[in-house]
Amino acid sequence: MPVPATLAPAPATAPVVLAAAEWRALEAAHVERADALTLGRRERVQRRETHPVEDFLFTYYPNKPSALRRWHPGAGTVLSGAAAEDRAEWRWYRAAGGDLEVDAAAFLAARGATVDFIARLLGRTAERTARFGCFGLHEWAMVYKQGEHRHEVPLRLGQAATDAVVEAANISCTHFDAYRFFTPAAVPRNALTPTRENQPELEQSGCLHAGMDLYKWAVKLGPLVPGALLLDTFELARDIRWLDMAASPYDVSAWGAPAVAIETAEGKAEYVRAQRGFAERGDALRVRLLAAMESARAAALVE
Questions:
Q1: Beta carbons within 10 angstroms of residue 219's beta carbon
Q2: Nearest to residue 122, comparing CAs of 4, 280, 237, 274?
Q3: Cα separation of 245 and 45, whole Å?
Q4: What is the pLDDT of residues 218-273, one digit of tens each?
Q5: CA spacing 20 to 30 A to 74: which of 104, 168, 238, 290?
Q6: Structurally, how many domains does the chain consist of?
Q7: pTM
Q8: Which residues contact 174 (CB under 8 A, 6 or more apart)?
């Protein structure tokens, strides 16, 4: 796949050097924030409880709380005096004297195809006009005419009325990883046929799942992504997930998510208002992820 202009080779730049006191403070703040974000999940695991909304962030996106709390400075940043730390044993780091930095050249050599795909996908998505007419019907299409459902949560309208909502709608899901969970009866009702191959040509920032997936792409980019950016993508995914389930056919009110009744005009308007806000947040994060990849390219030239 051709690399988009947004990830054209960047000129080599001098690395940013963080004194030990600076990077230790950033690391400590990151760990504290990550622990706060994952506290509910960690407590539920201890109690052997599940949560139909938030557990998705740890099952569909298989990144453990312990991985989230691992802070990276991103490519192009040198950590003074860090070579004597445990971090020196982490994959994709290299020592230079007593200092340590992300080995961007090694990461790109090993996973360059993945980085190129992510850059192309995010770049094309950022360029495309957002669409706000889907109303979250992907979740409804996942239960259409289906006796057994992915979540052990009751349908708030019942099966027949849920099916009727699908049949009355114009479904135009653009996201492959949502579309692939459509029931067989729902597949021909979608106006589009998303595939992994045409994902960069269809993905658009109004899609809730495209916004949530920014967290997935940040995880795949590993140490190239600064810790604050990783946690920002996680927070966006968490917030979107609440809307995704509130607007779904499931009754998740017992977990603190009042229904966004997209089968009504009022519910559709409420959904679109939230959707627009998430699209704006996602667009800003795409720019930052693309910048992180550009920094990795530049850092690899220096190395």
A1: 17
A2: 4
A3: 21
A4: 999 999 999 999 999 999 999 999 999 999 999 999 999 999 999 999 999 999 99
A5: 238
A6: 1
A7: 0.92
A8: 131, 134, 192, 194, 202, 203, 204, 207, 210
